[in-house]
Amino acid sequence: MAFTINPLANPKGVKKLCELCQKPAQLKCTQCLVTFYCDPDHQLTDWISIHEKVCSLLISIHAPAPFGTLQSDQDHHHKERVKKQEYLIEIAHLEAQRWVSKKRFQDVLPAALLFLRWAMQVYGTCAVELVPAYLLLAQANIGLGSLSQAHEYLSKAEWTVMKTPGCSHTVLHQLHRTLGRLHAAMGKYTSALTHFANDVYYASEMFGLDSTVTSGGYFLMADVFLKQNKSDVALSLYAEVASSWHSHLCKLMDDVSRSGTQPEECFDEAQCVEADQMLRCLLEFEEQCVKPRPDQSVVLAHSLAMLWLLCNNYTKALEYGKKAEVLIQGLSEQNRLRESIHNLLQHAEKHLE
């Protein structure tokens, strides 16, 4: 990363603005030459969050069309530029999601803002493609405790969805999930549950009632019920989440056994971190319960072992596999699960030899 302060960098009458705060800027990235900052701190923040990943791509996007070429060549240049812009949007989207999964909310903001800015350029200022960017910005601000700013982004997302007839169930479930998070953070538990119920409805319509995507809504609902001291309801929902994840991971492991290779559906870093956080939270909750449910603890430890095996982290897979092996000793009539745990341990140990 490099930067320079050059008062002559901005031609007279052309105002350069900071990439992060939109204040007047005089620092310029000396690699792409098109990104400006008001101070070194903002440049470093942007570099860590997203700019390192897209700096060279920005150079390509801003390259002018060859002068004096045929119209067909100019059209081709324009199409290629749009493809690069869409790729830039995709990278910014994935990076923002990755930072959210790691709960590094300050790092979410630059990536999500870049995602939003370029989505506006490519799709227009009222397009439904902007909604995921608004939701990521809202999640980051909820995590940072800036609830009024989160509400502002969610209002924009709601307005965009309202103006888009036939909006996909995927967008609707994501919108209601984020609204639920905001209302829960504000202590408005009744309205939070309403939004999470809508989240579950739209997610189940899109992905199925037993999918891991839908189970995320159950997990968030359970957290609200716990805050309302309704532990029985929360326990029931947690069991549903554990069952969904265990079934999903067992299916992927079966695919591995049959093919001898990694399954077609694999976890990216953000998905792995998010699943790990959820399953560990459930396992820790079970271990701290006044009335322990060893069968649930076994399922969760086994799920974590399978998750890490599928993410090629054999050390963690072995750790949770051994935990599941210990937990299942006190249970009867679990022969199939016992065999699955044994096979997983053999698989993990083989890769660590």
Automatic annotation (TrEMBL):
SUPFAM superfamilies cross-referenced by the UniProt entry: HIT/MYND zinc finger-like, TPR-like
Start and end residues of each MYND-type domain: 18-55
Transmembrane segments: none
This protein's record includes keyword Zinc-finger: yes
Keyword set, alphabetical order: Metal-binding, Zinc, Zinc-finger
GO molecular function, one term: zinc ion binding
Pfam families, A to Z: zf-MYND
Name of this chain's protein: MYND-type domain-containing protein
Origin species: Phoxinus phoxinus (Eurasian minnow)
